[in-house]
Amino acid sequence: MELDIRKSGETLIVAINDSRLDAAVAEEFKAKLLAHIESGEQRLVINMKNVAFVDSTGMTAIVSVLKKLVQSGGNLAVCEVGPRLEKLFQITKLDKVFNMCPSEEDALNLVAG
Amino acid sequence: MITGKITLIIDADHDNVRLIALTVNHLVRAAGFSDDTAYLMEWGIVEAATNVVKHAYDNESGRSLELVMELNQSGVMFKMIDCGRPMIWPRPVILDFDPDDILNLPESGYGLYIMHHVMDSVDYTTCHGKNMLTLTKSLPESVKNGKQTS
């Protein structure tokens, strides 16, 4: 899967460049992010601007990443989620779990907070 | 508005689930469902097919998954058929967690909840080694009467 990974200060920004975060790519996505956390990253922003569809396997991959971050005292925000995708997060009630931010700047401020 | 019946047979793997997803989305829109409803129905079918790949077949290659899709004037019926390990049925359809208790968030169990949320009915039978998940979704009355899509 295509990820654009860059740093802004102490925050790692992961932009998903694929249009789908589903069972075909979720394990790879999770493994890459967990590896970054294990190497010491504690502030993470996932930019979902290009993502049109997420299934439950993709959602639980993000849940796994969040758990790992919380265990290590870190913080996560998800940003630029489109309205259809936001509806999926609402249906699964995960909108109440993740810090959902309208912009990447908001997400950076939140995890730095 | 189109009607008819189509059978799709794929090798049961996650890449091919995408083919089913895109086909379902396209056909249900052609049958009169709105883009938003088609998107949610695609989600439900992806969850159903992914369950087959992961749980019925344990991601084993060389297994097949069949989707029969029947579009008619009142809506759509999907029948998803596999020959893998059957599900325990009926099973509870709940998604109950404390969003503040991050470390105990569930990492499974969302699929069936999603299917029930986006479809009108979800049923499951198993007989002679064949498992069949049946999902239905009705068109709104306004669409059946030819007034609008929904």
| Strand order in the sheet with the most strands of chain B | 1-2-3-5-4
> What share of the residues of chain A does DSSP label as strand, in percent?
25-35%
Mean pLDDT of chain A: 97
**How would you sum up the major sheet of chain A?**
5 strands, mixed
Give helix % range of chain B: 25-40%
Chain pair forming the biggest interface:
A-B, 24 and 30 residues
User: What is the number of beta strands of chain A?
Assistant: 7
Structure description:
The complex is a heterodimer of chains A (113) and B (150). Chain A contains four helices and seven strands, in the order E-E-E-H-E-E-H-E-H-E-H. Chain A has 113 residues and is an alpha/beta fold. Chain A has a five-stranded mixed sheet with strand order 1-2-4-6-7, with helices on both faces. A two-stranded parallel sheet of chain A has the order 3-5. In chain A, strand 6, helix 3 and strand 7 form a beta-alpha-beta unit. In chain A, helix 1 packs parallel to helix 2. Chain B starts with a strand and ends in a 6-residue tail after the last helix. Chain B has 150 residues and is an alpha+beta fold. The mean pLDDT of chain B is 95. Helix content of chain B is 35%, strand content 27%. Chain B has four helices and five strands; from the N terminus they run βααββαββα. In chain B, helix 2 runs antiparallel to helix 3. Chain B has a five-stranded antiparallel sheet. Chains A and B meet through helix 2 and helix 3 of A and helix 1, helix 2 and helix 3 of B.
